[in-house]
């Protein structure tokens, strides 16, 4: 038995089952506008976990995602992504573009003057992917998100579901190990949301992604998650979900165990 099990003060929210952590927060505090908002926070996620992040409006869910991505005001604690220390105390150790993190916001924030091809190529070029590798990388990404053959389509001609799939492909273009989703399905109708949720689950398995997914509709995405984290009054409470395999291959929900 580890020392943590013997130590009554070891209260970390952890889903980790081995040493291959995709995300680790230890004593993390976050400010917004110079004022304390979150923390201290404790959280550990294994590679392949899908965490739903829920909580009241204004509780700091987006601020937490931005802090993990290197875009927020972390004032203390330790942030590790894919085994790499990226933030220690108030000091950022790794630039956002080098953290292995993909970030997808509600609405996708696509550039309307670009085509599908240009949208992906822009990221690949900025990431310094060699020219000869860009086309096969782009084609693979578009195939993964079921947009194969749509390279020449302009962004304004895409449907809502197609646009979010393109935004997802763009977020995956840097080959992140950790994908942060900030209510990406909000503007879509129920059928499109369900389709994209299934695509996300498939991609998580195929690419060994770890996902932190902010949502206001916990019930909709709960069947695909490994855990739910509730953020309220600056603190996290994590509930682990034990997946049940159904005959159709989808993941069903089961009662979870709460980790205060």
Your description of this structure?
By secondary structure, the protein is α/β, with parallel strands linked by helices. Helix content is 28%, strand content 30%. It contains 7 helices and 14 strands. The protein has a 7-stranded mixed sheet, with helices on both faces. Strand 10 and strand 11 form a beta hairpin. Helix 3 packs across helix 4. The chain is globular, with a radius of gyration of 18 Å. It starts with a helix and ends with a strand.
Measured on Cα atoms, how large is the radius of gyration? 18 Å
Roughly what percent helix? Answer: 25-40%
Indicate the overall shape. globular
Strand order of the largest sheet: 7-8-9-3-10-11-14
- H/E topology pattern: HEEEHEEEEHHHEHEHEEEEE
What is the percentage of strand-forming residues? 25-35%
Task: Name the structural class.
Answer: alpha/beta
As residue ranges, the low-confidence spans are: 1-11, 14-18, 244-260
């Amino acid at each position: 038995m580890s020392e943590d099990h013997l130590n009554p003060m070891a209260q970390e929210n952890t889903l980790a089952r081995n040493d291959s952590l995709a995300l680790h927060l230890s004593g993390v505090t976050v400010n917004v506008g110079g004022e304390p908002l979150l923390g201290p926070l404790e959280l550990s996620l294994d590679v392949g976990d899908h965490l739903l992040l829920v909580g009241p409006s204004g509780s700091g869910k987006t601020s937490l995602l931005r802090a993990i991505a290197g875009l927020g005001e972390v004032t203390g604690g330790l942030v590790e992504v894919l085994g790499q220390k990226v933030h220690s105390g108030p000091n950022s150790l790794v630039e956002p573009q080098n953290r292995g993190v993909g970030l997808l916001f509600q609405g996708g924030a696509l550039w309307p003057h670009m085509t599908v091809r240009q949208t992906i190529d822009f990221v690949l070029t900025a990431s310094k992917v060699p020219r000869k590798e860009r086309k096969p990388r782009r084609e693979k990404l578009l195939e993964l998100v079921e947009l194969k053959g749509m390279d020449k389509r302009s962004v304004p001609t895409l449907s809502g579901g197609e646009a979010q799939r393109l935004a997802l492909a763009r977020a995956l273009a840097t080959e992140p190990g950790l994908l942060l989703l900030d209510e990406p399905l909000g503007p879509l109708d129920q059928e499109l949301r369900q389709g994209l949720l299934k695509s996300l689950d498939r991609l998580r398995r195929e690419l060994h992604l770890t996902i932190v997914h902010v949502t206001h509709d916990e019930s909709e995405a709960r069947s695909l998650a490994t855990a739910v984290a509730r953020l309220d009054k600056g603190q996290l409470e994590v509930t682990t979900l034990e997946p049940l395999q159904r005959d159709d291959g989808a993941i069903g929900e089961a009662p979870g165990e709460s980790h205060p």
